[in-house]
């Protein structure tokens, strides 16, 4: 196969030695070209060029943000995407059943390529941008914004940094006392919220080795799942967090939580500008977000068929 290996050298767990080992492993049976990202959005253009030139697979060694960019370059083409974990959390790669170690994940990827386990999967889109696993709206995105302001610390203190940022954001950087936006469904249903997540897969994230399960119905072969909190009070947040840490339980069994699976269309309209993030990348503030589900839009190398069976 013709493979383009896209590397984000600044990602948290990417090392020069690991990159060499991975490149050699891929080159043993495949024609491999390597390209390093140099700026935001670069992976999208590299992936688009690979698809236009007839590349079979784009392998991405980087974090979830780099993987998202590549997916946006490949959606709607016949070139497949293959993730290798290189970031601090690697939500999508781990959701597919890959090891969090990039060299171990490469061995699994090579086995999948030898079996040609490439499947078409669905993606969500928000204002025309595709997302692999979720879009966070409101409080969640404000936390990501604070983390990105201290991006140099992510390599050394990834999960503690997120937890510290969540506390300081709730205390000082986000108005958690009133709804920031409303979810508008095609049937006329309106739900006010200060914090919502639209998911293409589950879990929402990982806390170390533990998955943070909030939408067990979400999966790459099903439409989107929406989770929205009606309150950001400490009691509500604590209950939601405890429920999410129980594998497979989800968080939809509370009056303070709005949960709806199999959503193909939803529009978020703000009462004021609100922040949002896509696959872990903060994209600024918006006043309206239009979500769509796009079935079978991306070819994906899937090492574990169970990861996309739902």
- What is the architecture of the largest domain at the second tier of CATH? Sandwich
At the first level of CATH, the class of the largest domain is Mainly Beta
Structural class: alpha+beta
Shape designation: globular
The poorly predicted ranges are none
As for the CATH topology of the largest domain, it is Tumour Suppressor Smad4
Main attributes of the structure:
single chain, 310 residues, alpha+beta, Rossmann fold, Tumour Suppressor Smad4, 2 domains, 10-stranded antiparallel sheet, 4-stranded parallel sheet, 8 helices, 16 strands
How would you explain this protein's 3D organization?
The protein has 310 residues and is of the alpha+beta class. The chain folds into two domains: 2-116, Rossmann fold, CATH 3.40.50.10330; 131-295, Tumour Suppressor Smad4. It contains eight helices and 16 strands. It has helices at residues 16-27, 42-52, 64-74, 91-95, 102-114, 139-148, 154-173, 234-244, and strands at 2-7, 31-36, 57-62, 80-85, 118-126, 129-131, 134-138, 181-184, 190-193, 195-199, 205-207, 210-212, 224-229, 257-263, 265-278, 281-301. The strands form three sheets. Strands 5, 6, 7, 8, 9, 10, 13, 14, 15 and 16 form a ten-stranded antiparallel sheet that branches. It has a four-stranded parallel sheet with strand order 2-1-3-4, sandwiched between helices. The longest helix has 20 residues, at 154-173. It is globular, with a radius of gyration of 19 Å.
């Amino acid at each position: 196969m013709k493979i383009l290996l896209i590397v984000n050298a600044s990602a948290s767990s990417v090392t020069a030695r690991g990159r060499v080992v991975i490149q050699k492993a891929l080159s043993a049976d495949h024609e491999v070209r390597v390209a390093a990202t140099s700026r935001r959005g670069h992976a999208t253009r590299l992936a688009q060029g690979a698809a236009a030139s007839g590349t079979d697979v784009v392998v991405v060694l980087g974090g979830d943000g780099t993987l998202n960019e590549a997916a946006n370059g490949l959606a709607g083409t016949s070139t497949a995407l293959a993730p290798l974990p290189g970031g601090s959390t690697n939500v999508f790669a781990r959701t597919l059943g890959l090891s969090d170690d990039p060299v171990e994940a490469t061995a699994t990827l090579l086995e999948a390529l030898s079996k040609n386990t490439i499947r078409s999967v669905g993606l969500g889109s928000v204002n025309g941008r595709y997302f692999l696993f979720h879009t966070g709206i409101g409080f969640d995105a404000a936390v990501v914004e604070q983390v990105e302001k201290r991006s140099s610390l992510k390599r050394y203190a990834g999960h503690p940094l997120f937890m510290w940022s969540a506390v300081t954001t709730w205390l000082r950087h986000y108005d958690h006392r009133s709804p920031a936006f409303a979810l508008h469904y095609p049937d006329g249903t309106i739900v006010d919220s200060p914090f919502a997540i639209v998911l293409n897969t589950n879990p929402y994230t990982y806390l170390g080795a533990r998955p943070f399960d909030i939408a067990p119905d979400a999966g790459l072969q099903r439409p989107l799942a929406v989770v929205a909190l009606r309150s950001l009070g400490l009691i509500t947040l604590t209950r939601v967090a405890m429920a999410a840490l129980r594998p497979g339980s989800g968080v939809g069994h509370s009056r303070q939580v709005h949960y709806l699976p199999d959503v193909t269309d939803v529009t978020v309209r703000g009462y004021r500008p609100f922040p949002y993030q896509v696959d872990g990348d903060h994209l600024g503030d918006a006043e309206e977000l239009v979500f769509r589900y796009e079935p079978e839009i991306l070819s994906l190398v899937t090492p574990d068929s169970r990861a996309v069976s739902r």
